[in-house]
Amino acid sequence: MARRTRRSLGAAALTALATGAALLSVPAQARADAAVTVTPDPSYQQDKFEGWGTSLVWFANATGDYPPAIREKLAKLLFGDDGLALNIARYNIGGGNAPDVKDYLRAGGAVEGWWKAPAGTTRTDTDWWSADDRADWNKDADATQRWWVNRIKNDIDHWETFSNSPPWFMTVSGYVSGGFNANADQLKADSVDDFAAYLAGATKLLEKSEGIKVDTIDPFNEPNTGYWSTRLGSDGEPVGGRQEGAHIGPELQQKVLAALPAALKKAKVKADISAMDETNPGIFATNWNSYSQASKDAVGQMNVHTYGTGQRTTVRDLAKAADKPLWMSEVEGDWGDGQSFTDMRPGLGLAQQIVNDLRELEPKAWVFWQPVEDYDNMKPGGESAKGGNWGSIQLPFSCTSTDTLQSCPIHTNTKFDTARNFTHFIKPGDKLIKVDDTSSAAAVTKDGKGASLVHVNSTTAARTVTIDLSKFRTIKGNATVTPVVTSADGKLQEQAPVKVVDGRATYTVPAQSVTSFSVKGVSGVAKNAGLFSKGHSYTLTGVQSGKAVTVGANGTNLVIGSANGTVAQEWQLDARHGKKGNRQRYVFANPAEGKRLAVRNNVPVVEPDTGERDPATEWIMSTTGDGTWTLVNVATGRLLEVGGQATNEGAAVTTWTANSGSNQRWRVTDVTP
The Ricin B lectin domain covers which part of the protein (predicted)? Predict the structure, then answer.
């Protein structure tokens, strides 16, 4: 079977998700979901949302020298207020193949490296470069991607640089498209320091030349995967591997993370390190859990892709345990059945992906891989027989300096429209909040005087949506909800405001639509909206076991038992620490024992309450809005769970690293008399 690249594999998986099980169940789903009540809950809110972004990479490399009219239209579609309104950009530090290697990468994929090789340098010449020799740097490199940096710098709030591959002379294979063994480390062990110096030096040159400040730098891209390989033809020339990529396993990743701070300091780059841009949350967790504490400490921001969708909540809880910001730093997909600019399925698929990422991952930013794709590669006969819907915007990557918007047309598909339902209504500075519907995402506005909710109806029937605003403290008498609808009948069509009556507003959304609801006249958090009330008693019941946490017979350890209402199963809130919202730290007390819940030697116990603050007694609670919670211990970063997924009476309650298992989720029930 022909090798499927990481990106086409992602497309296949995501397309199957959208066109397979989901669409096959549409008739039943349409009947079941004819009406839904959605309750946004501001008592559980995230930190300020940083915004929406994109990697520049291939599309910027391909179009940076296009005629002005084409570039300007693209820029407005991407960064303009009427376009996607993106405010985050990721600049790709190209690796670059040797001067004597004929270009074999996909259109736009050959991003120029920042090195300057002596005349006559070949692929076998690998020991000539020195970070300290100015002659070995090409300060004029990558003019096309850098045109974009200069054009959009007033639109961007956060710059990140990242690498897909080290330069050829730092790789084992001698090519930037990966190793001959895709599962072997591609960065040479003795090039770690050079690679760190290269990333830092290129970032500094970019900052100086374009007048920007880079906030974060990620040295990796999906490093612990088998995606990246180079194949040679019978003539010895590369025939496989059409994009830059490098396998770098967790052990080698840590060596790079150890070398990068000194390199950044030497280059006078003040960017934080982000890592490790893994392809999915599961592999991210594998990498992160193998890191030493020193390696984790070197990382200022955690970046993950969601080409795989399992274990989002694992990475969410790992980020909370590490007390670090988390980005969804790359995703794209097809969600359709052949290239189309009118089919609603791609737009609905992207919209549901965004909802799921925001709800389960709780990222501070959401970033496209690249919303501009090569029309020629996506048309039938391009990357697949039917073509594809990668990108929200498509145009040929082969246009010339003599082309016009007529000869080099720009197309937008339904993903462009449904993405704007998010980017126009959930804005930088807003705070994402809990919502109890898996098809909705919500946020409170930056000024705290309103809210936005985006609802996805992927079914073939209209759906009546009632928005319950009872979790807000204040609902003004003139409060309204204004729907803005994207469907096959129109793009971002604003409807008449709906008056809020008795704390509710109802609107019927069309079939196969994405609707943004702009809520005016609400603020604050209702007194009864929070999870815990002082003096109330609660039980913690395991989702997987169906049994409640109780104090064991020895009076110290915790076990599970049938919910029989005994005081040994009742827990009260003893204190709150830290920020409010999704990283609030709770202290639980068992009043019957006069003790508090703590973790000692990774074992949960009840112990006397000394009244002194101790991270071992503090817990961060997370939810996707489904009524279940995880509890992360602040001192250990481990989650409260039922050991071994046991269900028997008296089974031990333990702690373990986050894994999204149902034995790590708990239902909280108020049992106050």
Answer: 535-669
Q: What angle do CA 108, 113, 118 make, to 5 degrees?
A: 130
Sequence-distant (6+) residues with CB within 8 A of 120 are none
Distance CA 329, CA 498 (A): 36
> Do 78 and 149 touch, CB atoms closer than 8 A?
no
Nearest to 330 by CA among 47, 7, 585: 7
- What integer pLDDT is reported at residue 564 of this predicted model? 65
Q: Residue 306 CB: number of other CB atoms within 10 A?
A: 27
DSSP 438: T
The burial of 169, by beta-carbon neighbours within 10 Å (0-12 exposed, 13-18 middle, 19 or more buried), is given as: buried
- Pick the closest to residue 339 from 382, 396, 399 (CA basis): 382
Q: Are the C-beta atoms of residues 407 and 398 closer than 8 Å to each other?
A: no
Pairwise CA distance, residues 426 & 469, whole Å: 17
551's CB contacts (< 8 A; 6+ apart) are 557, 558, 559, 568, 569, 590, 592, 593, 606
- Cα(75)–Cα(73) distance, rounded to whole angstroms? 5
Question: What does R_g of the chain's alpha carbons equal in angstroms?
Answer: 26
Q: How many whole angstroms separate alpha carbon 535 and alpha carbon 598?
A: 20
pLDDT tens digit sequence for 416-459: 999 999 999 999 999 999 999 999 999 999 999 999 999 999 99
The answer to whether residues 238 and 171 touch, using CB atoms and an 8 Å cutoff, is: no
Q: How far apart are CA 461 and CA 627, in angstroms?
A: 27
Residue 75 structure tokens: 């820029």
| DSSP 8-state symbol, 653 | E
Average pLDDT, the chain: 93
Average pLDDT over residues 70-84: 98
Q: What are phi and psi of 606, to 5 degrees?
A: -105, 140
**Hey, what are 636's tokens?**
């250990």
Give the three-class secondary structure for 644: helix
How far CA 549 is from CA of 12, 337, 606, in Å, comes to 42, 48, 12
Q: Say how many C-beta atoms besides its own lie within 10 A of residue 118's C-beta.
A: 11
Q: Could you tell me the two tokens for 498?
A: 């709906």
Domains in the chain: ranges and CATH: 10-33+49-427 (3.20.20.80), 432-523 (2.60.40.1180), 538-670 (2.80.10.50)
